[in-house]
Amino acid sequence: MMSRAAFVYSDNFKNYKFRDDHPFNQKRVELTYDLLMKSDALNNKQVLSPRIASEDEIGLVHDRKYIEAVQLASRDQLKEEEGLEFGIGTEDTPMFSQMHEAAAQLVGGTLTAVDAVLSGDYIHAVNFGGGLHHGFKRKASGFCIYNDAAIAIQYIRSKYDYRVLYVDTDAHHGDGVQWIFYDDPNVCTLSIHETGRYLFPGTGNVNERGQNEGYGTSFNVPIDAFTEDESFLEVYRTSLRAIANHFKPDIIVTQNGADAHAFDPLTHLCCTMKVYEEIPKLAHEIAHEFCDGKWVALGGGGYDIWRVVPRAWAQVWEVANNGNILTGNLSKDWLNTWQQESPVNLPSTWQDPDNLYKPIPRKEEITEKNRLLLHKLLTPIINEQKYS
Predict the structure, then answer these.
(1) Domain with 111 in it: what CATH number?
(2) What residues make up the domain containing 198?
(3) Does residue 245 sit in helix, strand or coil?
């Protein structure tokens, strides 16, 4: 009998660690796992251990010389100037011991999630250790060594020949995945992110639409800084529904970065937990409408690891597992366990209060700018449907 959802997890995900003060901290995956366990929203039977991705699997996307450079860095044998050629040893992506093994486990976790779904054993699967969408074929970037999302998509294409819809709601543009499949007509990428005028990586403009046979399968909505829930969700709902209806995928892969929240220290968006309740609901709906339910959900960004990420990712799991969201108070056991370690006061409820941040004076202007972007993005699809 097919099970509802699989949760890929290992304590070893925390081995992907650049340094103690680095903003990318995989402790957030442990916090999410523990919150779900203590909330009785996850049980041990649903947890799958990730495998380690092989060099051949990583090589589905990444250049062999790049993989060799990461392996040398893992053993502290890569010279600094050699590393910089591959984006390794930078401020964002410093070298660390065993970095190849740690990154290969995150990739293996995502491939474990893919196989769980495409073997027919599960309808949905999540790997919050993955979602490292900035990695390029021969270069690390933005905290990302190996691009597990892109490797998983290429794995799906080569092993199952499915059309893949990749949906990225991280506040940073999903550049690595986009460029890797920029000319592939069977992979459609949708990225909703803060405009690159103020934020890394500076790409993801609305006119980046793909090239050659892949033209028309790349979609970007670079929303304005200080965008709030209502406008974010208007853009998300409208674009995802239109693009799914246009592309008609066989499987949906979502990257669930949790850094569009008002508390996130690295971005300038003003969303609340309302966004992270609605994002998985529509992804789930689209998966069942177009893909017989086949949905793989990944992690991604998210730098308020205490107040935001565990609640946001727990909602993704709850939707995948039960089709619902979690409400009411957080587990007292979880709060008591982690409050003493947290540098900030932990929230006591699943939902955010209404007065989470000061009112945004440009709200109407921001909303209108985002609507104009959305219209520009979708006009080619609308015209194609009108005249077909």
Answers:
(1) 3.40.800.20
(2) 3-52+102-387
(3) helix
Enter the DSSP assignment of 264. -
User: Which residue out of 62, 133, 134, 284 is catalytically annotated?
Assistant: 134
Residue 57, domain member (yes or no): no
The predicted pLDDT at position 37 comes to 98
Joined tokens for residue 117: 């779904």
Tokens of 103: 């990154």
> 170 lies in a domain?
yes
Please state the φ and ψ torsions of residue 106, each to the nearest 5 degrees: -65, -40
Domain assignment of residue 211, yes or no: yes
The letter for the amino acid at 6 is: A
Give the tokens for residue 265: 């220290």
In the residue annotation, 193 being an active-site residue is answered as: no
Task: Show the tokens assigned to 161.
Answer: 């020949």
pLDDT digits (tens, 9 = 90+) for 219-230: 999 999 999 999
Q: Note the pLDDT of residue 234.
A: 98
Instruction: Indicate the helix (H) or strand (E) that contains 275.
Output: helix 273-290
Q: How many domains does the chain have?
A: 1
DSSP per residue, 48-100? EPPPPPPHHHHTTTS-HHHHHHHHHHHTT-S-HHHHHHTT-SSSSS---TTHH
Residues in the chain: 388
Q: If pLDDT is split at 50, 70 and 90, which confidence band does 2 have?
A: low
Amino acid at 354: D
Residue at 96 is within a domain: no
List the beta strands (DSSP E) in the chain.
3-8, 47-48, 122-127, 164-168, 187-194, 218-223, 251-255, 295-298
